[in-house]
Amino acid sequence: MGTTEEKIRWGVEQRLEYIEFRLFWDGELKRGDITSRFGVSTPQASGDLATYRDRAPGNIDYDGSRKRFVATPRFKPRFIKPNADRYLAQLEAIADRVIGVDETWIGAAPAAEAMPIPRRKVDPAILKGLLAAIRAHRSIEVEHRSMNPQREETMWRRITPHAFGHDGLRWHVRAFCHIDKIFKDFVLSRCLAVGELHEPGAEPAQDDLWFSFLDVVLEPNPALNERDRRTIAHEYGMPDGRVTVPVRRALLYYFNKRLRLEAAKTIDDPTLAPLAVVNQDEFLSAIPATKSHRDLLM
Amino acid sequence: MGTTEEKIRWGVEQRLEYIEFRLFWDGELKRGDITSRFGVSTPQASGDLATYRDRAPGNIDYDGSRKRFVATPRFKPRFIKPNADRYLAQLEAIADRVIGVDETWIGAAPAAEAMPIPRRKVDPAILKGLLAAIRAHRSIEVEHRSMNPQREETMWRRITPHAFGHDGLRWHVRAFCHIDKIFKDFVLSRCLAVGELHEPGAEPAQDDLWFSFLDVVLEPNPALNERDRRTIAHEYGMPDGRVTVPVRRALLYYFNKRLRLEAAKTIDDPTLAPLAVVNQDEFLSAIPATKSHRDLLM
DNA sequence: TTGACAGGTTAAGTTACTTGATCCATAAGG
DNA sequence: CCTTATGGATCAAGTAACTTAACCTGTCAA
């Protein structure tokens, strides 16, 4: 009883979820957290807390001496399903200064530090232009710094983009290059400006390397001892000692570099490459196809 | 005139920001986008669009033939400041399946793919326990898979955590280990369970490696040709050909590995390591201090 | 013991909503 | 050509969800 379940407005639901999020991760919150984050009055925040108590009975208590609302020991989430990876993704964004703590629901962010890589910011206008070209299935002119020594240092080229790819360190746009007549990756932070939209140069479907996948079978590096292999198998979720990862062929090069797979079995210190590829012949022979365009590499 | 600027409720402001976000990035939206995302009625969504038109005159138009609201050519954001890195961070979270498209404001997400690394999910209960210990300045028992061959394969150890660190591939918790009496990193996905809180074993301030920084001076790899060096300098924001990055000594080991700095100048193919360290003596001699605990490496 | 802080409550009034109806414009299909 | 589907605008009546203003309670620290 008490749990009257009428329809509930979006704003109220957000605040109930916020209350529960804070109770789960921080274990506590105060009324002022609600009033300041959502700009509501104190009676409203009190009302929300009462509503929460009503709908999730036994989850919340008021600790008079600490002057905080606290989660009870038998707290059981009812409005959100807690997700550690989501929490950590937010923490990373905060550490990278991509968002502010006050834009998340994290109340007291723990001290956290991510790799401080001093990458140039991407110009919103450029990203916006590429998005527009992708949506409209058209080509766009891009001023791009090329690593190809045959080319001008920076040049305008027309490309027909269709997707974005992230190699773990930076974003590329996958596009048909009207000069070279092939599909390539263009690093976003090397795009200096964008121009007009025009007729497309190719259909996205023609980008075979993008649309075909290789099933990479990974195992703990056999150069490791039995025990370390078990640890790696556990960490990467390999119940039977292996895991199959479908990887776009266009991304195989980065996948290889990122996990140091190529040299895994020959490297002197196997702890540098915890994973190795089972279907290595297939894997290695699939890589060069993406490696032929020097622009991709660096 | 027209722009009456009374106080505005949180829910309304969210919708106005949503409208502008969509206009900027997607260039268009329809009334139904608002009703479905925020659960409001059609008259309300119409009202919001009218309010937006009122407050940001000249930004929005209705294209009757496409049956969409579209951004005008002279669109100028008034409620949000567009941030490409933030957009891309969301895109990455979507590609990694950490959040759903419907949880972001991105209307039509472009095709995007991030590195598919099959990492085990972190148990929310474990992260929550560590957060609680950090907040309370107490120690916590953790069942952890050790890579140290002297130790049991999995063992309970008491640690006093104080921060989180991300090496680009995974999260660690930085903590004082009550067994080894030193501060170490513990990979989150190797923590299997957490236990009770107790007295702390050390003050966070005693973690010298965490709280002291080394100024790493980076330059484009000198093994590259002049022109490629210029490109790298541009991409990493080095107006005078160098950039100084303060890095926590506790993270130097990962920083080195991630950017392949150690071997940068000697590696056969310099395109694999676009960056090199200027103050290399200082840098290399600072690394081993963090490298002494094998647990960190793999 | 006083004040500052955190929270709760009640009453009266306002704003932001909903439902349900009716109407308009455009595009696509027969 | 007419029909239907889609997407939008608007009005009227009613209702949640708010606000402001005032006043009350418990706990802690000076």
Automatic annotation (TrEMBL), chains A, B:
Occurrences of domain DNA-binding transcriptional repressor CapW C-terminal dimerisation (ranges): 214-282
Domain WYL stretches: 126-190
Pfam families assigned to the protein according to its UniProt record, in alphabetical order: BrxR_CTD, WHD_BrxR, WYL
Superkingdom field: Bacteria
InterPro entries membership: CapW-like, CapW_CTD, CBASS_pafABC_assoc_protein, WHD_CapW, WYL_dom
Residue ranges of domain DNA-binding transcriptional repressor CapW winged helix-turn-helix in the record: 12-92
Name of the protein in its database record: WYL domain-containing protein
Organism encoding this protein: Filomicrobium insigne
Lineage: Bacteria, Pseudomonadati, Pseudomonadota, Alphaproteobacteria, Hyphomicrobiales
